[in-house]
Amino acid sequence: MNKLMGGIGILLLAMTVLVIGYFNWLPNLAAPSQIKIEATPEQLARGDYLFNAVLGCPVCHSERNYAAFGGPPVPPLGAGRTCAEPGKPLPGLAESGGMPGTICFRNITPHATGIAGWSDGEILRAIREGIGKDDRALFPIMPAFIYRNLADTDAQAIVAYLHTLTPVNNPLPATDINFPVNWIIRLLPEPLAGPVAQTDPADTLAYGEYLATVARCAFCHSPRDSRTRTPIAGLEFSGGVSFQGKNGLMYSTNLTSDASGLGDITEAQFIALFRRNDDPTATDLNLMPWTYFAGMRDADLAAILSFLKSLPPLAYSEPTLSE
Fold this sequence. Notes:
Layout: H1 2-25, H2 41-54, H3 57-61, E1 81-84, E2 101-105, H4 120-129, H5 144-147, H6 152-162, E3 176-177, H7 181-184, H8 204-214, H9 217-221, E4 242-245, E5 248-251, H10 267-273, H11 290-293, H12 298-309
Antiparallel strand pairs: 1-2, 2-3, 4-5
Helix pairs in contact: 2-6, 4-6, 8-12, 10-12
């Protein structure tokens, strides 16, 4: 009996240490940098371009007009968006997508209800490391795990541009994640290991890969394991990821050069896809924000296509991989 009680005591002690360690050591974070960004005209122009054409910030941080082709963001851009709640559909969608709690898309304008009280270092940390001003882990619908690939100069340009947005008074409820997901997301953040250099635009393939990464192409177009939700190795960019449309599930397309994907599409045809403002053949809500990415420069879209065409051709993946 004494051995049994001793074993139980050791187990309880170990569990206590683990719980204390969990709440004291997680999320894994570094203090925000003390950087104060002094914006230049060139930096603001770059931030404008990244914010309004490449990263998709207004797509999540603004209301969207789902009645229009591509569901374009609605001004005031960056003022936040309707919270997603379990059992409560977002505008234009049939379902909420099974959110594990109330998830709010924050006001990122320089207003007191937005980011007015945040330092530049805190904003940079939120974007690339997934940590809020209060040192809590952000729900990973904020793709810090992707944006950590942003070059330092690009990340700083975005922060500089955020300060130029029109301040909007739009207080939103706090995000409230249900157990056990609220515990799990504390495991996700990871501080940057060091500086992130800018990719040379003259290196077309490398720059196309960089743009495709920060524009989140792989995230929406790479099948994920139904249990872990992690990308399935060897199927990158082959499509078949499920998204909730107004008439049910929709699936992302294949972006490899297989006949079931981009095939022999030309550069001009690829760019033309992004220059449309309507699609009369669409029978459901088109979740791909075409009109938003339409702001990308021809050269950048061409670089992305060059990168996509360099990938191994893969046949379209069955949608069941992502359900």
